[in-house]
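in:
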């Protein structure tokens, strides 16, 4: 990764290192424009803004946005497919959508200007972590209605890198291309990245002999122990990249090389944290639900979109020089939270414990069932090669010791069931960590 003195169009260090006052004034200007645009172009938003009594022209501080109601996934579904678009459909050049398990998918649209903004957001992140036009970027996120593939494709192209749009799946081929093309940067989900490591070991591919330096990993929650495992096995630095289709896709926020919190692209996205139960805005540093307002999109702006992702936001004098607010890596989603016997549990808390135990593989599944009308939680987790064939007694002892660790971290008895290596389904995209079988049980 070489240095590049030429000023590129996505390079605007004067914004990402500006004073907080300057950032606020950029946000204020962009917020007013966005609200006016939504008001003029969309009946749904016009009604909402009228009802709130807020006059976009009279806003003097971005915090006044709290007068406006939230936009929820249900609002998007109720207006399926194009009801919340704020431009003519003829100006929309791209659609993405998020699947969702029930009901209509949520559909998002981009004008060609929006696509430029999106690419610039992510290109800036990549550039600031050292990615240059000499790099070879392998995009193993899927291409399609999911934003991961195209998001990284256009961003990496914008900074002039060579992009390999391989998409997800066919892991042996991924590894061959990684070796043959001398891939230096990987865009992927963390779970699929780990699977790549597993296949590489089976195929005799040695990552220390490949050229990977940096991975932008995201689209699902992951933990610090998982990061260490990925960095160790793939011989690269792994950065957490966050985004969601409703807000733009990847490029909303990402870690810098300091790897301590994700800088939010604040000139494009206004972040708030709210208490998901009371809907009240929380001061910086408090954990709650992330809410985003887009500040520069035209086809599909969102006002106070409730992400259901749990995090906290904070100011930090980051060693990288950026002054953008940071968000902590998302710990899970309000709708991921399991309530078992009155205890709130997030899959990521279970992962955190499992990943610190020696001789366990980073492949697990949380299985929920019902017994006598009571919820039962069990975690299946693979043990390392070799261990499984040791005496059964030892395995039982091992299971019990993990159950104790889970109990002391979470305060809940979670049954542990050790599984043979490579028996839990792998993902080539976002991993599914919970198998809810409660409807099947009594
Ligand atoms: O996952 C966009 C993306 C693509 C982000 C590639 C990063 C890399 P959706 O499919 O709409 O968009 O899913 C969005 O995924 O609300 C979070 O719950 C989760 N998510 C995304 N990034 C992270 C992350 C893309 N770094 C939903 N950590 C979000 C935890 C994440 N969860």
């Amino acid at each position: 990764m070489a240095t590049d003195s030429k000023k590129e169009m996505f390079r605007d260090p004067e914004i990402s290192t500006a004073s907080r006052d300057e950032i606020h004034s950029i946000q204020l200007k962009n917020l007013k424009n966005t609200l006016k645009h939504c008001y003029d172009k969309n009946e749904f938003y016009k009604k909402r803004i009228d009802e709130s009594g807020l006059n976009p022209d009279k806003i003097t501080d971005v915090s006044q946005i709290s007068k406006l109601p939230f936009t929820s996934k249900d609002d998007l579904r109720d207006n399926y497919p194009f009801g919340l678009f704020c431009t003519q459909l003829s100006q929309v050049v791209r659609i993405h959508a998020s699947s969702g398990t029930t009901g209509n998918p949520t559909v998002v649209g981009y004008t060609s200007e929006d696509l430029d903004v999106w690419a610039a957001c992510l290109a800036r992140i990549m550039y600031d972590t050292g990615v240059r036009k000499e790099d070879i970027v392998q995009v193993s996120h899927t291409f399609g209605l999911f934003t991961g593939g195209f998001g990284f494709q256009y961003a990496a192209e914008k900074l002039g890198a060579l992009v390999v749009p391989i998409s997800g799946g066919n892991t042996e081929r991924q590894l061959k291309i990684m070796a043959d093309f001398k891939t230096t940067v990987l865009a992927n989900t963390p779970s699929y990245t780990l699977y790549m490591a597993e296949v590489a070991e089976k195929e005799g591919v040695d990552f220390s002999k490949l050229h990977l330096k940096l991975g932008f990993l995201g689209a699902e929650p992951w933990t610090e122990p998982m990061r260490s495992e990925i960095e160790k096995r793939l011989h690269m630095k792994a950065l957490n990249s966050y985004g969601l289709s409703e807000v733009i896709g990847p490029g909303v926020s990402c870690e810098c090389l300091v790897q301590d919190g994700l800088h939010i692209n604040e000139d494009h996205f206004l972040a708030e944290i709210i208490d998901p139960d009371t809907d009240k805005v929380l001061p910086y540093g408090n954990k709650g639900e992330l809410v985003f307002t887009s500040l520069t999109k035209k086809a599909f702006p969102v006002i106070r979109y409730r992400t259901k992702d749990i995090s906290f936001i904070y100011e930090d004098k980051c060693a990288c020089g950026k002054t953008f607010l940071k968000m902590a890596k998302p710990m899970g989603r309000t709708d991921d939270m399991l309530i078992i016997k009155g205890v709130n549990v997030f899959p990521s808390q279970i992962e955190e414990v499992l990943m610190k135990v020696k001789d366990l593989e980073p492949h697990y599944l949380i299985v929920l069932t019902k017994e006598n009308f009571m919820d039962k939680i069990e975690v299946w987790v693979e043990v390392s090669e070799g261990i499984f064939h040791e005496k059964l007694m030892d395995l039982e002892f091992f299971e019990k010791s993990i159950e104790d660790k889970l109990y002391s971290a979470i305060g809940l008895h979670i049954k542990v069931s050790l599984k043979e290596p490579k028996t839990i389904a792998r993902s080539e995209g976002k991993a599914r960590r919970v198998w809810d079988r409660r409807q099947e049980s009594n």
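note: The chain has eleven helices and 21 strands.
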